[in-house]
């Protein structure tokens, strides 16, 4: 993302901070908590899980929305705490920098691409829940932003911070069973690509164009699982 004299997609000095002034971030967290309670604190099963989890067999049958809806479901208290902490840390400055609706489109697009990767690279019988794919999209945007500032002290510090967090998250699937590395990879790629496109959008219509960019990526994800 351009940050020197042209456009600051994420106007920050290189720190990750809390969710002040970030309504979409708070809404996504609130929805995840509500659905966690409604589904029996992650015990699984029940009509909500059956309707919203990414079951690849159902996706193959045309239920494309299942690549998005797993962001509402979590399998355990550890699962939701880790994901919501990551969203709380990574999301607010992106949302404040690009606008609420572009942030919503980014989050959903990353979830959708992550779901598409899990669909094509995972087992047909896999059932997945969690917001990790969407959250890795936030990693991707931060990575894009830091890369464009790699020649500054703040950019280099952010690259190290994001690189360290990505390294930890890349190792988790090898340490914890039933983690979808496919969704992580898809979300990361989607977020980075969207961040790169956003960095080239300037002018009074830039917020609308950012939203359209995220929506277009989400539509591509849907079309990919309908082919």
Please characterize this protein's 3D structure.
This protein is mostly helical and 227 residues long. It has helices spanning 23-38, 46-52, 56-60, 77-98, 100-121, 132-148, 153-175, 181-198, 206-226; strands at residues 54-55, 127-128. Helix 5 (100-121) runs parallel beside helix 9 and helix 6 (132-148) packs across helix 8 (181-198). The chain has 9 helices and 2 strands; from the N terminus they run H-H-E-H-H-H-E-H-H-H-H. The protein has one domain: Rhomboid-like fold (Up-down Bundle). The protein has a two-stranded antiparallel sheet with strand order 1-2. The protein starts with 22 loop residues before the first helix and ends with a helix.
SSE layout and pairing:
Layout: H1 23-38, H2 46-52, E1 54-55, H3 56-60, H4 77-98, H5 100-121, E2 127-128, H6 132-148, H7 153-175, H8 181-198, H9 206-226
Antiparallel strand pairs: 1-2
Helix pairs in contact: 1-4, 4-5, 4-6, 5-6, 5-8, 5-9, 6-7, 6-8, 8-9
């Amino acid at each position: 993302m351009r940050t020197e004299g042209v456009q600051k997609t994420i106007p920050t000095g290189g720190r990750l901070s809390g969710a002040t002034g970030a309504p979409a971030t708070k809404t996504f967290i609130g929805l995840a908590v509500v659905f966690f309670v409604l589904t029996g604190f992650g015990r699984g099963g029940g009509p909500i899980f059956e309707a919203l989890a990414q079951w690849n067999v159902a996706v193959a049958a045309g239920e494309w929305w299942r690549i998005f809806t797993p962001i509402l479901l979590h399998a355990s208290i550890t699962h939701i705490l880790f994901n919501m902490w990551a969203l709380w840390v990574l999301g607010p400055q992106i949302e404040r920098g690009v606008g609420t609706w572009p942030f919503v489109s980014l989050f959903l697009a990353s979830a959708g691409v992550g779901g598409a990767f899990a669909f094509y690279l995972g087992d047909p019988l896999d059932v997945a829940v969690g917001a990790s794919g969407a959250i890795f999209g936030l990693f991707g945007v931060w990575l894009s932003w830091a890369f464009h500032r790699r020649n500054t002290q703040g950019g280099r510090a952010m690259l190290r911070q994001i690189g360290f967090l990505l390294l930890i998250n890349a190792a988790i699937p090898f340490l914890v069973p039933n983690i979808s590395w496919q969704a992580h990879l898809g979300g990361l790629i989607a977020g980075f690509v969207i961040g790169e496109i956003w960095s080239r959008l300037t002018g009074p219509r830039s917020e609308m164009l950012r939203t359209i960019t995220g929506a277009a990526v989400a539509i591509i994800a849907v079309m990919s699982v309908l082919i």
